[in-house]
């Protein structure tokens, strides 16, 4: 892409073309150089910010991960890959990875299908459709901290709304210690996460659904397709790009989950709801073992990066291809 | 489910913290001696009294000091607790501290002393610091030298509901561990939850282990273990075993593993609302109970952590800490004068009366109105030994590991031996 900006060698001054043509070429070359300069000068501020605020910290974390470092002064105690070997020996971190996987699987298997079902339902003509849409989307607008405080009150063992409601309808047996029970904390957390985030995915799907031309559904109807066949053969294939993006956001979100867990359980009880980001925070800002925390963040970054690249390469390829062709066309 | 902005938000927080340290670093440069051409000295006083009424009382005291010393100006810098801690860490790294600064003593102060940043006050304060309550001075004595002057002191002990004790037929607060376990049993059979614990906040469980360690292995054991980087002494394992005995009685409130300390359904609120009989907490407990719950009023009582039969510690040894002030090395004489002024009987009377701290000047005792605070004060003045809060006494990673391992013991996932082993591992790592 950049080559189009550079002066073409074949049209350089040492060629034996007639002068007028050379002049025109030179003029074009100058204009191109000017274009190039403009492009660069517009990009510099953004690039500098991106470099200082994103690239440098990433590179520095990578560097710090090889030191035993308390976070102040310069890292000086080089320990090679010790932080990483320690990381993969740490049952808490291995547990983090396992819990991350559990969350990803649960979200893909339950949360997204639920969001899709709601989106399909709310795409029909029905009374109060806008109200439902707004209601389901509202939790997403709430901050994670507020959600956390709210649900730690709702799920307060014995005293909370959840237990009272269950007791009220005679289901006391289903009540429990929720966030306080090591075996139940992840399930409860997933429930809250679904409440909070399904509305966001539902909105994505709704937007996707609206862009499906009605004619296709009509054509399918005429061809005698039933409701399920229409969903299966018209809606889903045409919604696929949206679905792929939603899965991507969901997985990346699960890898980086922090706020909600921090507020509700701080990773407890006894590490049973800890995520990689929580472990990183504990070591970085509570224990001041910044080198080790950097190692955690590097691994998190690595996992996200590998996933993102692989996903783009193998899953999003078709969606992105269109974009790149358009861009290539646009330059000319 | 996912929110791609999470990482960005985390990053913002981190860069905000970094920015904070930068301002702190730059903020402390410049006018190093505070002297100016007209002969007045400006002393900077960094403290964490950001809440009322303390904030105003302290500002008033600074004015009073300025009136008594016309050539001195006191510049107050107030920071919230956590912000103060991170700023001070940055300042310590930069090598320049404020003239007068808040300190909790212990490990952090020692770090600053080792870096040569803190003024040795041993000789300059000898004349007037003698009379202060002995335990209150303990956190600031490092290698037998005085580096700080206290203005507050407190301790951890059991806060209990007298009415619930009566209901369970317990006539007097237990003084031994077995009597304590008995009392727990009696409360349970009377249908009363004996103990409130904030399992979400690991430090609340650590108090039990620390006190038990002091009672079984002796008051110096925790400090010695830190110095030797070895926590595997039999006495410390025993502490864990005793704690396990207690946990096995299932004395804590329902869902304690997820409970917070000062939340609306947390440890403090359950005691304050009369639902749970006891909590092991510092002298601030009554205030927090009344804040998060209804408060117990006259039903609230205090007793020291019981002695363990056959242990090397005594019931009169206290686990606690307080607040004090230290001076940067080379601070002007006016700063030392200010410390003297702040530790005077008149000042302490005012602090005790208006801000609710415990007196460090024995004569200021008369200003305590609350019988419970009086009871705490009695234990403190009669104390025969002292252990500073572990998060102050130990390096941060070690303090957190103690909290974490003890929490695991209480949750049943670590044995008493494993607790001492994992603490030792971290202690060795921190060298």
TrEMBL record, chain A:
Q: Where is this region: Disordered?
A: 1-23
Instruction: Tell me where in or outside the cell this protein is found.
Output: Cell membrane
GO process annotations (BP): transmembrane transport
Q: How does it sit in the membrane?
A: Multi-pass membrane protein
Q: Where is the composition biased (Basic and acidic residues)?
A: 7-17
Which spans are transmembrane here?
36-66, 101-122, 134-156, 184-207, 247-268, 288-311
GO cellular component terms?
plasma membrane
Q: Which residues form the ABC transmembrane type-1 domain?
A: 97-311
> What protein name is recorded for this chain?
Sugar ABC transporter permease
UniProtKB/TrEMBL annotation, chain B:
Q: Which residues form a coiled coil?
A: none
Q: Which PROSITE patterns match?
A: TAT
Name used for this protein in its record: Extracellular solute-binding protein
């Amino acid at each position: 892409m950049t080559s189009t900006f550079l002066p073409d060698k074949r049209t350089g001054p040492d060629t034996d073309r007639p002068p007028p043509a050379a002049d025109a070429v030179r003029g074009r070359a100058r204009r191109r150089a000017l274009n190039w300069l403009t492009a660069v000068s517009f990009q510099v501020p953004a690039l500098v910010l991106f470099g200082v605020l994103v690239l440098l910290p990433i590179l520095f974390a990578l560097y710090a991960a090889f030191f035993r470092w308390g976070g102040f002064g310069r890292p000086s105690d080089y320990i090679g890959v010790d932080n990483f070997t320690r990381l993969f020996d740490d049952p808490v971190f291995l547990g983090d990875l396992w819990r991350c996987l559990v969350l990803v699987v649960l979200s893909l298997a339950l949360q997204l299908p639920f969001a899709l079902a709601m989106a399909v339902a709310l795409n029909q003509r029905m009374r109060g459709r806008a109200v439902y849409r707004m209601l389901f989307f509202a939790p997403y607008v709430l901050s994670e901290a507020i959600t956390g405080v709210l649900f730690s009150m709702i799920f307060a063992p014995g005293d909370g709304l959840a237990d009272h409601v269950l007791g009220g309808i005679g289901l006391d047996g289903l009540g429990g210690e929720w966030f306080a029970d090591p075996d139940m904390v992840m399930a409860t957390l997933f429930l809250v996460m679904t409440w909070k985030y399904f509305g966001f995915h539902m909105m994505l799907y709704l937007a996707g659904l609206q862009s499906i031309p009605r004619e296709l559904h009509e054509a399918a109807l005429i061809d005698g397709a039933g409701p399920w066949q229409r969903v299966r053969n018209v809606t889903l294939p045409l919604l696929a790009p949206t679905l792929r993006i939603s899965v991507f956001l969901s997985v990346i979100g699960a890898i980086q989950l922090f706020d909600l867990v921090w507020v509700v359980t701080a990773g407890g009880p006894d590490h049973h709801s800890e995520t990689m980001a929580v472990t990183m925070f504990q070591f970085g800002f509570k224990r001041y073992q910044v080198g080790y925390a950097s190692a955690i963040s590097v691994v998190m970054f690595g996992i996200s990066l590998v996933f993102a690249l692989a996903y783009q390469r193998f899953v999003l390829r078709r969606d992105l291809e269109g974009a790149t062709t358009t861009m290539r066309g646009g330059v000319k | 489910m996912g929110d791609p902005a999470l990482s960005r938000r985390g990053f913002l927080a981190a860069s905000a913290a970094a920015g904070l340290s930068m301002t702190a670093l730059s903020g402390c440069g410049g006018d190093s001696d505070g002297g100016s051409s007209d002969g007045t000295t400006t002393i900077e006083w960094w403290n964490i009294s950001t809440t009322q009424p303390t904030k105003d009382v302290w500002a008033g005291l600074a004015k009073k000091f300025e009136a008594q010393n016309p050539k001195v100006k006191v510049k107050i810098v107030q920071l919230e607790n956590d912000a103060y801690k991170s700023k001070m860490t940055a300042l310590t790294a930069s090598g320049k501290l404020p003239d007068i600064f808040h300190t909790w003593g212990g490990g952090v102060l020692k770090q600053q002393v080792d870096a040569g940043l803190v003024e040795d006050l041993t000789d300059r304060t000898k004349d007037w610091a003698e009379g202060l309550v002995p335990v209150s001075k303990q956190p600031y004595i490092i290698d037998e030298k005085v580096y700080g002057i206290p203005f507050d002191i407190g301790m951890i002990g059991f806060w209990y509901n007298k009415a619930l004790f009566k209901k369970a037929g317990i006539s007097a607060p237990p003084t031994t561990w077995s009597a304590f376990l008995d009392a727990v049993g009696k409360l349970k059979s009377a249908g009363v939850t004996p103990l409130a614990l904030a399992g979400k906040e690991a430090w609340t469980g650590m108090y039990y282990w620390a006190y038990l360690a002091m009672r079984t292995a002796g008051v110096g054991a925790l400090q010695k273990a830190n110095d030797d980087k070895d926590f595997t002494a039999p006495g410390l394992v025993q502490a864990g075993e005793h704690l396990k005995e207690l946990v096995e009685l299932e004395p804590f409130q329902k869902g304690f593993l997820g409970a917070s300390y000062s939340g609306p359904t947390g440890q403090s609120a359950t005691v304050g609302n009369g639902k749970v009989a006891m909590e092991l907490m510092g002298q601030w407990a009554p205030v927090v109970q009344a804040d998060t719950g209804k408060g117990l009023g006259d039903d609230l009582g205090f007793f020291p952590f019981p002695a363990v039969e056959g242990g090397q510690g005594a019931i009169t040894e206290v686990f606690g800490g307080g607040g004090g002030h230290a001076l940067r090395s080379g601070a002007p004489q006016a700063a030392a004068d200010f410390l003297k002024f702040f530790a005077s009987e008149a000042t302490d009377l005012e602090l005790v009366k208006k801000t609710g701290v415990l007196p460090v000047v024995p004569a200021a005792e008369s200003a305590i109105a609350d019988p419970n605070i009086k009871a705490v004060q009695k234990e403190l003045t009669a104390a025969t030994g002292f252990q500073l809060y572990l998060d102050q006494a130990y390096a941060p990673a070690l303090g957190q590991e103690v909290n974490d391992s003890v929490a695991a013991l209480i949750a049943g996932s670590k044995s008493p031996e494993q607790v001492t082993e994992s603490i030792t591992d971290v202690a060795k790592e921190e060298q």
